[in-house]
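Retry 2 of 3 after timeout on previous attempt. Resubmitting structure tokens to design endpoint.
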């Protein structure tokens, strides 16, 4: 399992499946209900064909760009993912370090195992922080202030999880609130010694953004009930305005799937929107995020940056998203597979693979600068076999 023998994101997924306890692997590799939207995200990306171009000098190529003014080595970021520290001990810290070393942004989830302060202390460049709006608004104010104090340069406000889509596997695995691990899952732990050993050394960390920061929430069991009833179903655009007034750095609204919602997010102060169906984990039956992208980019692309996530598994997919109007794309599961497979080295490998795929694919499309990518690199698909 030397990193150079891992040649695609799927290899990382297979290795993670072997190394991560089943309940946490399933937590990552699942979508809501029938998983139709989870599957559509990848399938619709894969169905977009490139136009092969030749006879162009492609010897000098550049993938560097900016996301909200920040320099990046390619237009990719790591998506916020909860419980990342359960894929690998200190998972958030390792993923943040790998992202920084590579030169792409890392987004820390509200539901992380390591806290904002843990990650800030263990890294040297700024990262982004993702926020869920909870009923306890005083807690949210404190959390935003902590992200500010830690130097986070962007706040990613997720607006598509005020009620939770159901994942069948999580229920069967006892990954509910509160957690009820099954006997099978406890036995499964015995087959993952490397994971257990890592966790045994870092067990002091638990939901560091919340535990110890809310009265009465001192451990995971008291946390579970609190979180379950805290997601605020009254969340509306005026809360986006409220956060905009509280936060003087970049504000990104995550989870819009229509041009009207994207416009509202921008009207209420967002610097960027993320076209996202939460990786198919929320509204099962929603269209893929790539199919929603073009009309949103057309409507608001001149006013704010349009980003996307969902189903990006390769540099080819990143290029497709870019061609259809996304300034940047995020990966969720791919970096989690890398983390579960090989820790920090696995996340780095994931980024290296996508970077190389992006470079080669762009070159074969006859484009030398990522900034010049436009829809003409994709066939219209009207009749590809004519
Ligand atoms: C997520 N996602 C997510 N989003 C968010 O805003 N806050 C969170 O805490 C989480 N947690 C989370 C956990 C896991 C295990 C996954 C897979 C996803 C959604 C995530 O940010 C992103 O939208 C999707 O992961 C993108 O789809 P892909 O790249 O996983 O296909």
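Retry 2 succeeded. Sequence:
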């Amino acid at each position: 399992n030397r990193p150079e023998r891992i040649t695609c994101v799927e290899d990382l997924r297979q290795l993670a499946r072997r190394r991560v306890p089943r309940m946490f692997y399933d937590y990552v590799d699942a979508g809501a209900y029938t998983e139709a939207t989870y599957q559509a995200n990848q399938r619709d990306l894969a169905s977009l064909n490139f136009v092969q171009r030749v006879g162009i000098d492609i010897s000098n190529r550049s993938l560097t760009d900016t996301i909200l003014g920040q320099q990046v080595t390619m237009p990719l970021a790591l998506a916020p993912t909860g419980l990342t520290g359960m894929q690998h001990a200190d998972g958030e810290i390792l993923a943040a370090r790998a992202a920084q070393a590579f030169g792409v942004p890392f987004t820390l989830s509200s539901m992380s195992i390591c806290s904002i302060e843990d990650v800030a202390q263990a890294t040297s460049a700024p990262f982004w922080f993702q926020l869920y709006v909870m009923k306890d608004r005083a807690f949210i104010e404190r959390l935003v202030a902590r992200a500010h104090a830690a130097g986070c340069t962007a706040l990613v406000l997720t607006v598509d999880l005020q009620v939770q889509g159901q994942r069948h596997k999580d229920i069967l695995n006892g990954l509910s609130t509160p957690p009820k691990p099954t006997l099978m899952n406890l036995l499964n732990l015995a087959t993952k010694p490397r994971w257990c050993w890592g966790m045994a050394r870092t067990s002091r960390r638990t939901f560091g953004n919340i535990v110890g920061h809310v009265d009465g929430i001192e451990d995971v069991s008291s946390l579970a009930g609190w979180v379950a009833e805290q997601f605020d179903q009254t969340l509306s655009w005026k809360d986006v305005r409220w956060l905009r007034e509280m936060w003087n750095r970049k504000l990104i609204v995550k989870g819009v799937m229509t041009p009207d919602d994207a416009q509202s997010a921008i009207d209420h102060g967002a610097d960027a929107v993320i076209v996202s169906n939460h990786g198919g984990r929320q509204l099962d039956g929603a269209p893929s995020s790539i199919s929603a992208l073009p009309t949103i980019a057309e409507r608001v692309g001149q006013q704010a940056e349009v980003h996307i996530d969902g189903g990006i598994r390769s540099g080819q997919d990143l290029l497709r998203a870019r061609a259809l109007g996304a300034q940047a794309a995020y990966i969720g599961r791919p970096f989690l597979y890398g983390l579960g497979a090989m820790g920090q080295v696995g996340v780095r490998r994931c980024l290296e693979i996508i970077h190389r795929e992006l470079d080669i694919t762009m070159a074969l499309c006859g484009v030398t600068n990522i900034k010049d990518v436009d829809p003409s690199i994709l066939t219209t698909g009207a009749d590809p076999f004519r």
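Attempt log closed. The chain has a mean pLDDT of 95.
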